[in-house]
Please model this.
Amino acid sequence: MENKIKRNIDFIEELINKYEFFKNFERSLEKIKENPDIYKINDLLRIICSIFEEKINELSLKLKEQEEKLSAIKEEFNLEEYEKIKQQKEEIEKQLNDQIKEYENKYQDLLDRYQKLSAAYREIKTEYENYIQRTEKNFEKLKRESKERIISNLIPVIDSFEISLSSMKNSNDIENIIKGVELIYAQLVEVLKNEGLEIIKSTQGDKFDPSIHEAIEVEETSEEEKDSVIIKEYRPAYRLLDKILRPASVKVYRVVKNSEVENNG
Model:
């Protein structure tokens, strides 16, 4: 495909260099050279084809005009003058015919290239659409399988809750109830950890990190070394793989300079 794209770029460049009426496409071709794109080349070939058609039609009209012009002046000149004009007309016709033939040959070559590139474009488009469809189906399948796996792993946790709730109704032993809830909590956390969840706990003295912490309470201090140090964690942060699902809610120190204290006073 890369060789085909290069050949078409070279061919378009040859046309631009040869025919003045294609000079406006120099800038477009330079952009395509910087970033070769089959779709843009295909569009440019299509436009150049249409311009060639227009030029061929223009030359055909000129030929017709020469015929009409010769017929109109035939009665106004003597035979010698008429033959001279006729000869000039034939020379012009030859030039026009040669030019038309040249344009038609280039146009046919151009049309062949455009049709082949269009076919390649359609093939790539079809393959891409099929790839998208396959990808979407695979994604849906993976999503369904992921849900099934997570729910299957959570079912034993639900079972444990049901057993624990049943035990609570028939027991007044608070210590055993607490232990049962703790076991269920650990079971639930284990399921979530296996799915990539990480619980990030912060302790007193840790440095505040805006990527995982959210300061919901601030305590002012004059000690520089305490600036942005965590005093207390209200709830931990949760990270799934490389994304923070929820930052930790914390209380932090903020240094207040003497000048601020004086101004507040």
